[in-house]
Amino acid sequence: MGDEEKRNRAITARRQHLKSVMLQIAATELEKDRSRRESEKQNYLSEHCPPLHLPGSMSEVQELCKQLHAKIDAAEEEKYDMEVRVQKSTKELEDMNQKLFDLRGKFKRPPLRRVRMSADAMLKALLGSKHKVCMDLRANLKQVKKEDTEKERDLRDVGDWRKNIEEKSGMEGRKKMFETES
Q1: So what's the pLDDT on residue 25?
Q2: Which of 34, 68, 113, 134 is 20 to 30 A distant from 128 in Cα terms?
Q3: Across all residues in the chain, what is the average pLDDT?
Q4: What is the pLDDT at residue 103?
Q5: Averaged pLDDT for residues 159-170
Q6: Parent domain of 91
Q7: How far apart are CA 109 and CA 57, in angstroms?
Q8: CB under 8 Å to 61, separation ≥6 — which residues?
């Protein structure tokens, strides 16, 4: 047991060491990723957004505002055009999906609820209120009376079965059987 405990402790220590090394590597990778993103952001801003020079005279400020408004208008037009394209493509997608469902024959059916109705209520709903149909099946059943047959009477009148067996045993009993049958 002593060797096995030492071995388990060594395995646990190794796992802990590997886990800490992996966390250190992940932390350095995250830091590198952050610095890379920051440098990309600075490069993009320096390329696309020139530094702002505020002019001193009023006419230069007005000219700058006109240029900015022209750029805003161009950006708004692009935005509108993109939105129209997106709406058009979504409409086309919906139409195509509808055609697909039509071709497959799979329409979305609403979930049906189970409704408890008697047979009379169903017929009344189907045929209307002017038709009066009664579906009381128990009332329509015929009563069948049992007919007393000779065999049933014989079975009732037999009585003790041991006497019956004793009577039919031997040659005399068989003779009686043949006489009663014919």
Answers
A1: 96
A2: 113
A3: 79
A4: 78
A5: 63
A6: 58-107
A7: 71
A8: 54, 55
For residue 116, give the 3-state DSSP assignment. Answer: coil
CA-CA distances (angstroms) from residue 90 to 68, 80, 94, 100, 103?
33, 15, 6, 15, 20
As a whole number, mean pLDDT of residues 15-41 equals 95
Amino acid at 117: M
Which letter, b or e, does each residue of 98-120 get, where b requires 16 or more Cβ atoms within 10 Å of its Cβ?
eeeeeeeeeeeeeeeeeeeeeee
Terminal CA-CA length for the chain: 98
Sign of the C-alpha dihedral, residues 92, 95, 101, 105? Answer: negative
Structural domain contains residue 142: no
Residue 157 domain-assigned? no
Q: How far is CA 33 from the centre of its chain?
A: 41
Structure tokens at 176: 């009686």
Residue 109 is given by DSSP the state: P
pLDDT at 36: 96
Lowest mean pLDDT among 94-98, 103-107, 129-133: 129-133
